[in-house]
Automatic annotation (TrEMBL):
<dbReference type="InterPro" id="IPR048000">
    <property type="entry name" value="TnsA-like"/>
</dbReference>
<protein>
    <recommendedName>
        <fullName>Transposase</fullName>
    </recommendedName>
</protein>
């Protein structure tokens, strides 16, 4: 029999995004398709004096808005949207209910990311709160169930400041409809790999520097070009070929 901290008899409840109907299945029967069709299990209200900074983020991956409950969740959304392996982003994807010891426990993860490798279930928690025994217990039994299902599980806390700043900056160039397709093709066809960012931004494309700058950063966001986002972006930052360059 499972020990006191081991989950058993787990049930997952999902709200369908098209019909908004709710249904529950045994956790072992949950599939990636089930997650892909899910609407947020819960949404957030906005009110004066609220402690959390909640809102919606327009995702280039989803081509629609995705909800978040805090600035830290927004940061994780930016990373997911920038990750070329992520194919779908579902916020508050399901309610997981399990018997843990003698208690019936419930938890709604923050995100389900559907990737090339399979589902990644994400809980976002400030690093300072990870020492809370109650939070730790919830994350622990959730991890056991998710990994036991053969999926990946992640507890995500504050990222490096420079890296987040760079990803947030690049996200400003994510909306393809804002860019001249002809210019994007011209920049993409020019071999900028191995050039510095300064060289790329000063290259002559017969357009204004501002338009060229935006096009280059849009291609970085979409992984036609890559940069080291862990280091400050400067004119000497090297551009390299990205996974989408071919």
């Amino acid at each position: 029999m499972p020990g006191d901290g081991q989950p058993a008899e787990a049930i997952v409840s999902v709200r369908n995004k098209d019909t908004l109907s709710e249904f529950s299945v045994d956790w072992t029967l949950a599939t990636a398709d089930l997650l892909s069709a899910a609407a947020p299990w819960r949404t957030f209200r906005w009110y004066r004096g609220q402690k959390h900074y909640s809102g919606t983020y327009w995702s280039s991956t989803e081509q629609s808005h995705v909800i978040y409950e805090s600035r830290l969740e927004l940061a994780r959304l930016l990373y997911a949207d920038y990750d070329e392996a992520v194919r779908r982003i579902v916020a508050q994807p399901f309610l997981l209910k399990a018997k843990v010891g003698r208690r019936v426990c419930r938890h709604v993860p923050d995100f389900a990311l559907l990737t090339k490798q399979g589902p990644l279930i994400v809980d976002v928690k400030p690093r300072a709160r990870l020492s809370d025994p109650r939070i730790g217990a919830t994350l622990d039994w959730t991890r056991q169930l998710v990994e036991g299902r053969g999926w990946c599980y992640e507890v995500w806390s504050e990222p490096p400041v420079t890296e987040l700043s760079n990803v947030r900056f690049l996200a400003g160039f994510r909306q393809r409809r804002c860019f001249d397709v002809t210019l994007l093709d011209e920049v993409r066809d020019r071999d900028l790999s191995g050039r510095t960012l300064g060289e790329a931004l000063s290259a002559d494309f017969g357009r204004s520097r501002e338009l060229v700058r935006s096009a280059v950063f849009h291609l970085v966001w979409n992984h036609y070009l890559t940069v080291d986002v862990a280091a400050p972006l400067t004119s000497s930052t090297m551009l390299m070929k990205g996974p989408h360059c071919d």
